[in-house]
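Can you give me the bound-state structure? Components:
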Amino acid sequence: MATRRRETKRQPHPRVAVDAVLFTIEAGTLKTLLVKIKQGPFLGQWAFPGGLVQVGEPLDTAARRELYEKTGVQDLYLEQLYTFGEVHRDPAAHTVAVAYFALVPPGAHALTRGDKYAEIAWFPVSELPELAYDHNAMAITAHQRLQAKLSYTNIVYSLLPPEFTLGELQTIYEVILDKQFDRRNFRRKMLALGLLKPLRKMRRGAHRPAALFAFTRRSPMNVEVL
Amino acid sequence: MATRRRETKRQPHPRVAVDAVLFTIEAGTLKTLLVKIKQGPFLGQWAFPGGLVQVGEPLDTAARRELYEKTGVQDLYLEQLYTFGEVHRDPAAHTVAVAYFALVPPGAHALTRGDKYAEIAWFPVSELPELAYDHNAMAITAHQRLQAKLSYTNIVYSLLPPEFTLGELQTIYEVILDKQFDRRNFRRKMLALGLLKPLRKMRRGAHRPAALFAFTRRSPMNVEVL
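Here's the bound-state model for the whole set.
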């Protein structure tokens, strides 16, 4: 321990923070969770929930702790997104931010804002205000990663029930990618990715009966393209 | 500046390091660059080149600086891999390591080892010794990322000349993925990814003439699967 303390204090070094970018789809809109800062140089601005990593605390533990303390959200799979190291991103001190992200079903988590924040809210990703720190850049990186992952992973399983129609899946892809797909092309390409299995069951209701599908796995997996 | 210094010193926090995982293919073998430590608790062990980030230094600048100081390698595109935050990965102090990786052509960079290191060498990825810190885990993460990126990016362009045959490309894929592909299946799948363009030229020599290809772009790009 003596060694550790001495080494830690020997010279100034950047601080380490964690931030969490949560996405959901609500009423056909891709949204992300922000908290409104009520003190310091970013007073009145919105930011992703996050904070400093403590000595002796693993990064993903810190990310889950900060997310819980600032929003009340817990019990979800946070995936590391990217580490942001621009020197002046935090005017208080050189702070390296390890960002995490996750997709959550709408309404699945009750929100409780932390004491240091004035408000907490879901914002449409396409209409974010000017955020604190470099969080606008973080939002863009997170959205791009989410979009890219649609084509080689089963990442959207967390937004869908165990059984769903290809139409429901297509809607989610269209909302996240902000583009329309031809129904037959989308169906052909999705099935070629090998992420889905047909269930030999139909959804019946007000509309024409539609075939039901499931993900082959409901934990993170990548497509085998080659 | 006063604020920054106070904030930096207020409480102990983890240190930030950068490490660089370089891959090359030499004589049909995937290799990675290591330096041998000659002091401290990891004396005599091999590690990826890296070191602490300085206050006021951007992460990727630190990664390039450490790589240059420890190996003499410079002028290459380092891509951020992952940030490792296991608390005891460095026995000297809690140190968060932001790892970078790159693919380099064999022999393209002359090596000059830094003063703090006993040796520098390329090791076959399949036969790494027990490395310092958590660098065996870092090697696995880097290799997995490299393998995954083969299927949705043009990452191997840096290992190939501007014009190449599909046989040369297949060899690189087989070395990195450590598996054999059927020639016609590989050809069909690669062309479907849209990363290559045929050049309407042939390579002539000792073997049967072979069609030449180029990457549609020689900078990082992702496949459009959907």
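A couple of observations. The domain at 2-150 of chain B is CATH 3.90.79.10 (Nucleoside Triphosphate Pyrophosphohydrolase). Confidence is low (pLDDT under 50) at residues 1-8 of chain B.
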